[in-house]
Please model this.
Amino acid sequence: MRGQRIVSVAPPRRVCVLSLHTSPLEQPGIGDAGGMNVYIEQTSVRMAQRGVAVEIFTRATSSDQPPIVELAPGVQVRHVAAGPYEGLAKNELPSQLCAFTAGVLRTEAFYDPGHYDVVHSHYWLSGQAGWLARDRWRVPLVHSAHTLAKVKNAALADGDTPEPRSRVIGEEQVVAEADRLIGNTEAESAQLVDMYGADPARTVTIPPGVDLHLFTPGDRYAARAALNLRPDAVVLAFVGRIQPLKAPDVLLHSAAELLAQARAEGPDAERALRGRLVVLVVGGPSGSGLAEPTALQQLAATLGISDVVRFLPPQRRADLVTVYRAADVVAVPSHNESFGLVALEAQACGTPVVAAAVGGLPVAVADGRSGLLVPGHGAVDWAAALASVALRPGYRDKLAAGAVQHAERFSWDRSTDALLATYADAAAEYRSRFGLRAGLAG
Model:
């Protein structure tokens, strides 16, 4: 791990987790729910299993939501009323920071002083609220950015909307105030230091994990039967939110290129490949993709591949196992990705991944061993990489074995242990800095 040395200190008793803009109860792949939701859920549950009570604060998005939901024994999700329940876009949420923060502080006020030992904020909006909670409660603030505006703006997809200056300023403020910053990879930690001026001594690298009990290799043909796919199909899959940042269009352009190359060999070659080729797109519109929710379907029609593209709604994690197992290869063509949990999940199921060589994906995918990394997003290069895996069974099998081995290097248990050590270390330093009494708060 990069940055501050982790020392052996007593773990916290209670952790306040802030996730203003999305709840771990929401289905990943819908709206703003994605890998961050999985991260919060998985680490919170494992903290509770280690005897640490976790309270997760998120913004209420429906009048039907109860104030408190038990996510798992020892893990509570608190819905804070902050603004209208529905129809509030993420770029409108800064207007509700005051209301959300007030709701968090009022909840803590009902407890005895020192109730929480640490605040862990996720995404910059939550970091703003966490900054105030840290000062009020006199406990350390640990922050996970998950995505960074400066990084996203440097790698925008064509036609995508840049992140606003207000977010950049907000991120800079949180980076300056947080007692610990957590990067998913060494590259992200370096971006925090180089692009945001973070203190390397307060910056820790903790890779996310994968549920190795859920995501496991299985019968590919049974998975295909469950999805009504031919046993001999050539299945290319995309799993994620449908938005320019995630670049599902790259997969469609690549599929069209594969068919064009087969056409150049002759009508029979194209007919044979088209009869077997299936492009699975699993997810729902999100972010800037909400402005054109049917853009991907229209692109498939324009490219003349509507007959080989199948769109599936966001799937529960247990159902994603079937999708991963059914695929010959999973494509992760994002323009930016802080880590790429989909890549890990697919590999844990024994499915090679072809991914863009951006962000944390070079860590999530072992190039040439568990999948392939593609520089850039050109259809020709992507078609070549996808074909080299999906159309070469022997090579695919070799990568599939490496995929399982690579995924086994990552686990949520390991991530959780590192988080708890970071919390304890930050708390010890915070007490020392302000002359607070020994022992965690309270």
